[in-house]
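Q: How would the structure tokens look for this protein?
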Amino acid sequence: MSGRQGGKLKPLKAPKKGPAAELDDDDKAALERRKADALEMKAAKEKAAKGGPPGGGIKKSSGKK
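A: Here is the predicted structure in token form.
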């Protein structure tokens, strides 16, 4: 006989959360730097999405003159 014979499996228990970790000055500075970088990247992506050729790119002609 096997150990488990069908049926719904129980979900794994999540580890208990311990007390909040104390952040020192270096950790705080790193978090602020990451947040600033993320904001800059978001702004750059928005600016790039707005851009593009003003005429809509190369237009395909029908070949008739």
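The chain has a mean pLDDT of 78.

Helices lie at 25-50.

Upvote if useful.
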